[in-house]
Amino acid sequence: MTDRGFVCGFCREEAKRKAILKALSEKVGEPIKGWLKRRYAAGAKLSEIGIALGYTANSSGTMCRLFSRLGLAARPRGGAKPQGVTDKASAAFKRNQVRMKNRNPGSDHDLRVRMTRGMIPHYRKRASQWELLALATLRSAGFKPVHQFQIGPYSADIALPDRKLDIEIDGRNHYQPGRKEREEKRTRYLRNLGWTVVRVGQIRRQKATDGFQRRVLEAVQ
């Protein structure tokens, strides 16, 4: 697919996403973001919220993705039935979640390295549209970017290993409380290994893809 074709597909996906959010807002009679935030704060389970929106009882994963797209933090609450593992990447991700609960990875460098290695397939499968657009932009310009490249206990969103360049595509979750300190620690670690970290923020407006692509290309100059 050409870069132009990819951008057109990207715009269609954005339009589809907005149409879904609009339909959900009309269904609940108010902006969907505020409704979700209020229901979750009241103690509703993600599966219960999904049922109220017309989804099946096994919709916790769908609701997690919906919350993430709207910049809201949420996770499945106790009492929900296991959803089952559908692929190896999801299985590794679930195992690592259990390890994080049972053992503090912050003090064990080797454990964090192994956990990151296990999560990378999951991250690649769940790539955001902005990450895919950045990859297509760099490839069309003649570069050979690597998506979710492991560097010690961390994973680079998009890496150019030959240049030791890490391009991070920052979404809304990067501005949550406490995230800034973790990102600064990560940046110091990578710089000590000789890597350069460049951050490119996502753009909310659907028609602003040209500006996003320009910033991605400026990052490799």
Which short descriptors sum up this protein?
221 residues, alpha+beta, Endonuclease, Chain A, 3 domains, 9 helices, 55% helix
Description of the molecule:
It is a single chain. The protein has helices at residues 3-28, 32-41, 46-52, 60-69, 88-102, 109-125, 129-140, 179-192, 209-219, and strands at 146-151, 154-160, 165-170, 196-201. By secondary structure, the chain is of the alpha+beta class. It has 3 domains: 6-69, no CATH class; 85-124, no CATH class; 127-219, 3-Layer(aba) Sandwich (Endonuclease, Chain A). A 4-stranded mixed β-sheet has the order 1-2-3-4, with helices on both faces. A hairpin with a 2-residue loop joins strand 1 and strand 2 (154-160). Helix 1 runs antiparallel to helix 7 (129-140). The radius of gyration is 19 Å and the shape is globular. The protein starts with a helix and ends with a helix. The relative contact order is 0.10. The model is unreliable at 79-86 (pLDDT under 50).
In short:
The protein is α+β, with helices and mostly antiparallel strands and 221 residues long. 55% of the residues lie in helices and 11% in strands.
Question: What is this structure's SSE topology?
Answer:
Layout: H1 3-28, H2 32-41, H3 46-52, H4 60-69, H5 88-102, H6 109-125, H7 129-140, E1 146-151, E2 154-160, E3 165-170, H8 179-192, E4 196-201, H9 209-219
Parallel strand pairs: 3-4
Antiparallel strand pairs: 1-2, 2-3
Helix pairs in contact: 1-7, 3-4, 5-6, 7-9
